[in-house]
Design brief:
Layout (H helix, E strand, L loop, with lengths): L9 E5 L2 E11 L5 E12 L3 E6 L6 H8 L7 E6 L2 E2 L5 H11 E5 L10 H11 L6 H10 L15 H14 L4 E5 L7 H14 L4 E5 L3 H7 L2 E6 L2 E11 L2 E2 L4 E4 L3 E4 L7 H14 L9 H11 L7 E6 L8 E4 L12 H14 L1 H26 L2 H11 L10 E10 L2 E11 L4 H11 L14
Parallel strand pairs: 4-9, 4-10, 7-8, 8-9
Antiparallel strand pairs: 1-16, 2-3, 2-5, 5-6, 10-11, 11-15, 12-13, 13-14, 17-18
Helix pairs in contact: 3-5, 4-5, 5-6
């Protein structure tokens, strides 16, 4: 399955996304191992908004990165529609992100050298698709940025940049959206707009958000997972508890709220029901009257327009239903960055970092010079150089060598195992040079030749 094109017939009875026994260990500053994620197992449904909460260092961002394939576990596995990451190559993780996941980061991570529409279209081109202007236009309309298509990101506000990042994540139609502190760099009003957008998307997609804001998590989240020291310490799911109708005019919401129909004339039966409720619960009673007071109370008590109250309970096995997925549904799409974009991104990076460009060029020149010198030293042969010089100067020359022969005999445990004659080169002595001068005349060059053995 390492080619990313393996298509099984189907996967039956599996989760949309599952992480099983995940462990991720980092080296701390003191050299000790730090378990950022310590044996986490979770299952996720096809849609809904899930918040990962925890203090700094709890492991929430690490878990998000593992789920998105930006980081790789030391042990355990990520299972997407039945396909296990244990069978993934490096390229498969890249394809997994390209196919199923859209990322929204705190720092936006959009490219300033591209226009808004080009930033969004790039996600399509990474999937090998054409720059579909209509698809880009539809996504911009969805995040209310239609009039900003031709603008550069450096002319946008923080909230607008974050919505561009969301649009870029959406245009490739991912089934999972992972948002790491998407409101961290925004004011509360703008952050609410971004969360409203993500909440709307969660009606059709799985949205997982890393946050430190419990109030936002309780307001927007369908499920809240809290981590500490790399472990899940709490996993709760939101449920709506319908009001209990006591009469046509009176209903009881949860264990502590009485709701009276607007403008209703209470009967003796209604009053008796209210009295019995108050006596049973004991303590003080607070009456909220008027639109402003009632709306404020409903917000604090998490009561919706239908009178149902939102509560959190422990997440149960059936909350993330299993499904059957075909091979086509779990197929991976390879990433393809067009060359023109790669060049544009690279050139832009050099423009904004001129010192890096200067030192890169300088180091390249030094490296090539050193490589040339090393090559000359390694392959320099003085005898060959002298011979070539004489030949090119028109001189006649001869090359003489001196060898000696010897017999080597090998023994093992006192028994001869091998014996043979060999020869090797050796140096010329002054007597040898005098003999050569006598034989060949005075007009010659003599070159000392030595083997590695001396």
């Amino acid at each position: 399955m390492s080619d990313g094109l393996f298509k099984p017939t189907s996967f039956k009875g599996v989760f949309m996304l599952e992480v099983k026994d995940l462990i991720k260990v980092y080296k701390g500053k003191n050299g000790n191992d730090v378990r950022a994620i310590d044996g986490v197992s979770l299952t996720f449904a096809e849609k809904g908004m899930i918040f990962l909460l925890g203090k700094s260092g709890s492991g929430k961002s690490t878990l998000l990165n593992l789920c998105g394939g930006l980081d790789f576990p030391d042990s355990g596995e990520i299972i997407i529609k039945g396909r296990s990451s244990k069978d993934f190559s490096q390229a498969d993780f890249d394809s997994y992100r390209n196919t199923f996941v859209g990322f929204v980061f705190q720092e936006y991570n959009i490219l300033d050298e591209f226009s808004v529409e080009s930033n969004i279209a790039l996600a399509l081109e990474l999937q090998g698709r054409s720059k579909d202007r209509q698809a880009v236009k539809d996504i911009l309309e969805k995040v209310e940025l239609t009039d900003f298509a031709k603008r550069k990101p450096n002319t946008l506000s923080g909230g607008q940049k974050q919505r561009v990042a969301i649009a870029r994540a959406l245009v490739k139609n991912p089934e999972i959206i992972l948002a790491d502190e998407p409101t961290g760099a925004l004011d509360s009003a703008t952050g609410k707009q971004v969360l409203d957008t993500l909440k709307k998307l969660s009606e059709e997609k799985l949205v997982i958000v890393v946050s430190h804001d419990r109030e936002f998590a309780e307001q927007y989240g369908d499920r809240i997972i809290e981590l500490k020291d790399g472990k899940v310490i709490s996993d709760v799911t939101k449920e709506k508890v319908a009001a209990k109708q006591a009469s046509e005019n009176v209903s009881f919401i949860g264990d502590d709220t009485v709701a009276v129909k607007d403008g209703a004339a209470l009967t003796d039966e209604d009053m008796s029901a209210i009295k019995n409720f108050l006596v049973k619960k004991g303590g003080k009673a607070v009456v909220a009257s008027g639109a402003k007071a009632v709306n404020s109370y409903e917000k604090v008590s998490k009561i919706d327009k239908d009178g149902a109250q939102e509560n959190f309970r422990d997440t149960q096995d059936g909350d993330a239903p299993k499904k059957e997925y075909s091979g086509e549904e779990s197929k991976l799409i390879r990433s393809r960055l067009p060359l023109r974009h790669a060049v544009k991104i690279g050139v832009s990076g050099l423009k904004v970092k001129p010192f890096r460009l200067f030192f890169t060029v300088l180091l390249s020149v030094v490296a090539f010079v050193m490589f040339g010198l090393l090559s000359v030293l390694l392959f320099f042969d003085p005898i060959e150089l002298a011979s070539d010089t004489y030949a090119q100067s028109g001189y006649g020359y001869i090359v003489i060598n001196k060898h000696y022969s010897y017999i080597s005999t090998h023994y093992k445990f006192g028994v001869e195992t091998y014996s043979g004659e060999s020869d090797d080169g050796t140096d010329f002595t002054p007597a040898d040079l005098a003999e050569a001068r006598e034989k060949y005349g005075a007009a010659y060059g003599a070159f000392t030749y030595s083997t590695d053995d001396g």
